[in-house]
Amino acid sequence: MAEFTELSRSKSHGGSVVKYRHNSDVLGCAMQFSAFLPPAPGPRPVLFWLSGLTCTEDNFIQKAGALKKAAELGLLLVCPDTSPRGLGIEGEDESWDFGTGAGFYLDATAEKWKRYRMFSYITKELPELVRTHFPVDPARASISGHSMGGLGSLVCALRNPGMFRSISAFAPISNPIQCPWGVKAFTGYLGDNKAAWKDWDPSELAAKYEGPPISILVDQGSEDSFLHQKQLLPEALETAVAGNDRLNLQLRIQDGYDHSYFFIQTFIDGHLEFHARALST
Amino acid sequence: MAEFTELSRSKSHGGSVVKYRHNSDVLGCAMQFSAFLPPAPGPRPVLFWLSGLTCTEDNFIQKAGALKKAAELGLLLVCPDTSPRGLGIEGEDESWDFGTGAGFYLDATAEKWKRYRMFSYITKELPELVRTHFPVDPARASISGHSMGGLGSLVCALRNPGMFRSISAFAPISNPIQCPWGVKAFTGYLGDNKAAWKDWDPSELAAKYEGPPISILVDQGSEDSFLHQKQLLPEALETAVAGNDRLNLQLRIQDGYDHSYFFIQTFIDGHLEFHARALST
């Protein structure tokens, strides 16, 4: 049995915020994640939250103001870290948008980065840990995330038809093969074969998706500096989904909001309610 | 006119989270504070929040999950830092519970620490800045805080009868002259004359308070390690208030909660509603 340690536990809103550490077979290093265990008894539906560049397992659970509504809805939240850590790869800590804290939720193929396999970690190893250690209903899972984590929520769900009941994102990197962050990361993790990049691009995946119908909720602030820098490109996702009647996208441009957790705080309750509806049956 | 600079602004819950920097005449250094400006128009009531040891102007505004309710109630929040910074006093950065980040909301008398005057900053300079720069109703102010900041909210209000309409605190240091944190801080800031210490002790001040009647709401987690270490001593406050019919204390022991912001998150809405009632007329 792999090591699985509880690092801290705080009561909150009648439930518990708990941080865990475990040895990841997929990534080959110790990993941490945070969870919110709601007070409701019995097998709970689970929402996976994927954070953005530079974040850890702490950001969402501390700053999103999501726990009151999650307790009320009986949603179990799982918030993993954003990359492997401490693998000792040359240059892993040099950039804030590549390497440590910037795993991009893909499985790298470049030899140097081959242990960066956050996609497999999020979609295989982590759900298995959750099923083993928590009172969840494995048939009821949804996924959400912010920025790079919004990319992750879309990629993980669209590549695994049927695994998640609903998808949401705040300011997702929607078309990484066309933006500076994505080109840098994909060049590093996947190499120069751009045809392979499309397998990790939410808009490319949305155009080709052939799984069961699924709803996607996206909030995007109009004053998000990364939107203006064309890192996010939500219009590409909108165009891709328009051509695929298996996907139902609600893209809301929120006037005056930026890229911060103050934006996420404002709309998180609506996302939790969106997922709870999809998870209720 | 003193320098007063807006450092950042994010829209949240229809209002704005803003961080400011200004030169403090009282403290003799640059100071920062955060504010939440609710969407409601017109002169707003204001709630001052005082944070605990090691905190800055960021902790509450980022982690308390208070903004949704503050927006709904139309409360303007002001969250100052916890000490002067960068004064260059020998030893100011050596302890986490004394010096930088640990001003204890008093006016120091020891020569070495004479620029540590957080009490005057919070009760004179900061309210004046707030009145000058924000659409507040100066007659409607309340005060709250956490741990050392709970001590601060009680001391600032009890020493200034009529300045605040209501007082609340999460896990306040209620009787510092009897606990290790308080004895260390008061010895440093005030010297060895223990008679003078009583002027900065919430329980001592509560026993002697002769101002207009005022209500105090205190939440205390039963699993707070600092409660068990006898740093907080809420029973001393309870005893002092029991002998003073001008003070109405509701002390709630919250079963299973600790000292963290996950505890504050759980009960903050009730504190904001408590203050909004006192500020509504």
TrEMBL record, chains A, B:
Q: What domain of life? A: Eukaryota
Q: In its keyword annotation, does this UniProt entry include Hydrolase?
A: yes
The Gene Ontology terms for molecular function here are: carboxylic ester hydrolase activity; S-formylglutathione hydrolase activity
| Class of enzymatic activity (EC top level) | hydrolase
Catalytic activity annotation: S-formylglutathione + H2O = formate + glutathione + H(+)
**Any keyword Hydrolase?**
yes
Q: Gene3D superfamilies given for it?
A: alpha/beta hydrolase (3.40.50.1820)
Q: Name one GO cellular component term.
A: cytosol
| Catalytic residues of the enzyme | S147, D224, H259
| Cellular location(s) | Cytoplasm
Stored Pfam families: Esterase
Keywords of this entry: Cytoplasm, Hydrolase, Serine esterase
Q: Enumerate the Gene Ontology biological process terms.
A: formaldehyde catabolic process
EC assignment: the record states 3.1.2.12
Q: Give the UniProt family note.
A: Belongs to the esterase D family.
Record's function text = Serine hydrolase involved in the detoxification of formaldehyde.
PANTHER family for this protein: S-FORMYLGLUTATHIONE HYDROLASE
List the protein's name. Answer: S-formylglutathione hydrolase
Q: Which organism was this protein described from?
A: Blyttiomyces helicus
Could you read off the lineage of the organism from its UniProt record? Answer: Eukaryota, Fungi, Fungi incertae sedis, Chytridiomycota, Chytridiomycota incertae sedis
